[in-house]
Design a protein that fits this description.
The chain is an all-alpha fold and 145 residues long. The chain has one domain. It contains seven helices and no strands.
Length: 145
């Protein structure tokens, strides 16, 4: 369950981090996991992840707590948590709940951390890059077997 929650935390930082990590590692037993491994889904998820990493640095990027961004993080955190739980032979609803909780928690905790990093380093870019690295590092840890 800890890994499912970590997948959610990664999703709270970067929406596509955990599902990209799930789609980039060996497939697990759940139908949702198998869907993520279809070539067109994997390509789509990876492109979306790249687009998000780039768009996040733009001044017009909406806040992650805006309704659309929060909904996306909630859904993707639930998916990632469920996939990770299935790989660990845990109940999918438990993993889904842990992924959702992690995603929502970091969606609200992340902006103050990033703002503190921006203040410390004199600009938003270092904090954004650190958050990118943390999100994908946590996602990799969450899906590691």
């Amino acid at each position: 369950m800890v890994r499912a929650a970590l997948a959610g935390v990664a999703t709270g930082a970067r929406s596509f981090a955990a599902v990209t990590a799930c789609a980039s590692t060996p497939v697990g037993p759940s139908p949702l996991d198998r869907l993520l491994h279809r070539a067109w889904v994997r390509r789509s998820v990876r492109r979306s992840a790249l687009g998000e990493v780039i768009a996040d640095k733009l001044p017009v990027a909406p806040p992650r707590t805006a309704p659309a961004g929060l909904l996306a993080r909630a859904v993707l955190g639930t998916v990632a948590g469920s996939v990770v739980a299935g790989r660990e032979r845990l109940a999918l609803p438990v993993g889904a709940a842990a992924g959702l909780a992690g995603a929502l928690a970091w969606s609200f905790a992340g902006p103050p951390v990033r703002a503190a990093l921006a203040e410390r380093f004199g600009g938003d870019l270092p904090g954004a890059l650190a958050e990118d690295a943390a999100a994908y590092g946590i996602a990799a840890l969450a899906v590691r077997r």
